[in-house]
Amino acid sequence: MQRTKLSFTVLAAVVALGTLLSGCGDQEVGKPTTSSSPQSEANKFAKKVKISMFNQGTFNAAAPIPPRDEDIQRQMLEKAMNIDLDMMIPQAGQATTKLNTLIAGGDIPDLIFLKSRSDLAQYYDQGVLADLTPYLDQFTELQKRFGKDSWDAMSYLGKTIGVPGYDNVNGISRSFFIRNDWLKKLNMKVPTTPDELFEVMKAFTEKDPDGNGKNDTYGFIGGMNKEGNLQTYGFDSLMWMFGVNPPSAIEVIDNKPVYLFIDPKMKEALAYINKMMAAKVVDPDWVTMNTPDLLDQKLFKGKVGFMIRDARRLEPDYQQKMKEISGEVPEWIVIPPMKGPYGDQIVERKSFQGNSWAISKKADKDKIIRILSMLEYLFTDKEAYPNFAYGIKGIHWDIVDGKVKNKTSELSKEMKEKYLWVDHYRMPRRGDDAEYFSFQNPKTAEAFTNNQQYVGPTLPGNLLTADPSDTLAADRTRFINESLVKFMTGKDPLTNWDNFLKTLDTKFDMQKYKDTTIKQFKEAGLIK
């Protein structure tokens, strides 16, 4: 049965930034030191094994695969695992067709990268994929490499049928930006609570913080995408101050699913935003902000004092755009999220682990063990890490002052294009590795690192798959989104909240959605 993943709010928990590799090493290009890790010693595997890899997890599907004698990363994997690696890179947009053709012809790749949990479940149901449960106890380092929520996403029908594909990146795209120069001028402190934030936004709107004598500044601007969803455009971040989020965020508390988009605390979050709207601290252009680029233009113009934007807007190229558009480079700083009335302090939730590595059911026990050993080496070997995450030593990275330094941002365009193929191997890079991004502004790296402590756990609702018999699913989601916008703008007073809940039950069969949630949560072991 085809499974289609529901559109859920996926926001996330990442642990603090891990310590990167340090120490000295051989400076010769293309001669990385082979790890002495027991899992990666070639003599652990006496017999060479051929492994075919279907790698749609590459970070650049357009990059050609280099010859083996030039492919340093491939040589490392083959030497460490005593394998002959045959890697296939499907062209962008053609991966599913290519994989299905291979499966139909009986030529199933040994190792398959899949981009969604629904694909993982579907291919397992079709008898294509192996159950990895009997083998994973042998790979403790691999198990420790990913968090419980990532491994939970690999579970299906009580079995582990995949290995997490790569870390999603959190703690950067939803940073809390505020004009520190405006705070200083108005003699105000960085806000730490929703009430303090409101007072700052009000002052930014009413007290002429840019000193031009005009009533042309605002405390905040957000938006919603073209489908009418509030996620990712700023208003959802304000809702997290109250521990809730718009559809379809679901938590499990006391062995019961809690639907955060209709939780009583959502009413409080909407009342807070409605208070902002009534005080006119929100730039009225928010209704047209339906792409990230439009919000960036507001950032560059410098007439809004508080926004939710990507921390990379602190990088030099964006700073230059600010100067070109507004004539100045405002003193934007990234601050911690406000701590809400229930103790919530969330910059975002950790993104759902949709991508995975799966192994063909045709692979025998020895091949499965060899593949899992390769994945453990790829994702956990500290000496090998920079060779996969950053690229080729002496070109993309090197040892500087005893520490690993990513030099990718310093490369010429020609050099970057020459080595595009290293993107085929970047999957091990950690989602909280600031060095991987090669930030040019130390403040960007600092913001990224600081944000990690405010990334909450993945919501369990993301494990749900769509119920094909739920014909009202799309209409229900649309009604929820439209209702939340009406409440927060005041077009529908919050005194009608109970009517909203009643309409969900009577017209949009909310109970069917709840029944599906309970059934699938029980199957996943999330509730008893």
TrEMBL record:
It holds the Pfam family SBP_bac_1. Gene3D superfamilies: Periplasmic binding protein-like II. The keyword Signal applies. It comes from the Bacteria. Keywords: Cell membrane, Lipoprotein, Membrane, Palmitate, Signal. The keyword Cell membrane applies. Coiled coil: none annotated. This is Extracellular solute-binding protein. It comes from Paenibacillus alba.
